[in-house]
Structure formats: C-alpha cells, structure tokens
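quick one before i forget lol
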Amino acid sequence: MKWRTSMKTLFTFIPPEELKQDLIKSFPDEDFSFSPEIEQAEKEIQNAEVIVTYGEDLTEKHIGIANKLKWIMVTSAGLEKIPFNAIKNKGILVTNARGIHKIPMAEFTFGLMLQHAKQFPVFKKQQQEHLWNQALPIFELSGQTMLIVGAGAIGGEIARLGKAFGMQTIGVNKGGEDRQYFDEMLTLESFITGLSAADYVINILPSTSETKHIYHKHHFEKMKNTAVFINIGRGNAVKTEVLMEVLQEKMIAHAILDVLEEEPLPAKHPLWDLENVTITPHVSSHSKLYLPRAFEILKHNLRTYTKKQEDYLNVINIEKGY
C-alpha cells in the first residue's frame, strides 16, 4: 500500500525527449506535465506541488493561484525575476542549478583571456589582409593577477584554472572567507583595494540590491590602464554609459562583455563600434551538458522531496534572494 499519492510536477518548458523519458523512468509513480510556456499551463498550476522553470516566467499571479505548490526548482542560477515576496508569504521551497555553469563559464573566460593576450583577432584580420607581421606584442597569462569578484563555484573554477596557468588569484565574496585556489580574499566592501593589482578583473556577481551598479567610474580609475574588465555575471553590475565613458577615455585596455544592462544590445548602439571592447551575446554558460547537469540536481532533490528528507542541493535563502 502506498504511503502517499503521486505529486503533480509541472515543467514550464519542454526538455529534450531523452531527459524527459529518463525522469519518467526514474520516478514512475509521479505525475509529470510538460508545457512549452507557462500561460498554457495555468490550469495545471493550481494543482502543481512542484514547478520546474528556467526562472523567468513565474509571476506573483502564478504563485497566488498555485494552491498546492510546495517547491520551485529553477534550472538555472539566475533568480532576479523570481517573485520572492509572494513565495515567502506561502513558505515555498526554492532550489536552483547553481554550480552547473562553472566548467563552460571558466573555459569561456579563459578562451577570451587567451584571445586578448595572444592577439588572435588581430592575426585573423592580418590573414584576411594577407599580411605577415611578427611585430605584434604577445603576452603571457603566467605571472598575471586576476581579481575574481564573486568567488563562488564559477569563480573557484576560474581561479583553479588560473593557478594552472601560474596566475595570482584574488577573490571577492560577501564576508571575505578563504576559498581554495585563491591567494587572497576580499569582501564586497573592500574589493576596490584589489583593483590596482589586477591585470584581469572578472565580474561574476549575481544581480541583487547590493550588486546592482556596484562598479562606478572611480573603480575603473583604480585599475591599470593595461587591465581587462570581463563581465560574465549580470549586466546591471555597471551602467552602460559608465562603460562607454571608461572605454572611450581608454582608462583600461579592453572590456569583454557577455552581459549588458540592455539585452539584446540595440544594433545601432555605439558600444558595438568601440575597438577596445569584445561583446558576446550572453552565451558564456551555454553547453550541451547544461540541462543534463541541471536534471541531475533535479533528480537528487526529487528523491529528497519524495522521501521527506532534508539533503536538498542549492536551497535558496528567500530573504537574500540567492
């Protein structure tokens, strides 16, 4: 005799068929429903005990009508669009897929750092011009210093690769606690003191009330004029007009921007045309292994939930929003 009835788990997206079938096979007693978008699933929301979402579609209205909702699984790390106030009022558990991005984002970061240091874009342009020029200055990453603002799972993986390249690593987290692969740790309040030593400043901060527009012009004035600023965190960490001013005045050597305040960046925006900027369309976390890794966390947490245990992965602090 079953000790409980099956629970309704609603997906607000359609996962790949192999992941869907693996989930159904792994949890044959549960009731899964898959919808291409949340508006088509509003009737089912009322009976859903669990909602699995990318985190950009849930509203206060949905939380209000989800009378049986106990748990939201966000299959990404970003939580800035989650209606936390409504969730808090109902005491709903929220977990996310924090940590699955660390490998692709670290590789992406080093790919762009090497591209800058080794002048690959210039060599490609010279090839197109049939130009043989050996006079370009080429730099090493070894011996350089990186300041990683956001020393979580992604920042830790970047630091690990940095040590393999022989780099000095300075990390920044909220409390300044020591982390593996970092030579030094700073806090959000003191990270400005590390800017002058950094050859690469890498922002990986999430979007919170504390981190929105955390970088101002005076932060860039503290950096070396040879420094590279890399933003793979959130676009609202720095205002676009500040970036424009910094780059036009050549306060730093280069900016690599995978995220921006306005996405997509308008085609006619002048930022596109600056020579000392590299813009990528918010793809640093993209990987064919993204959803398979997220589903491993989901499956672990589903087992925990169905067995009424407590060993959930990536529980979100509703008060802090991360």
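fyi The mean pLDDT is 95.
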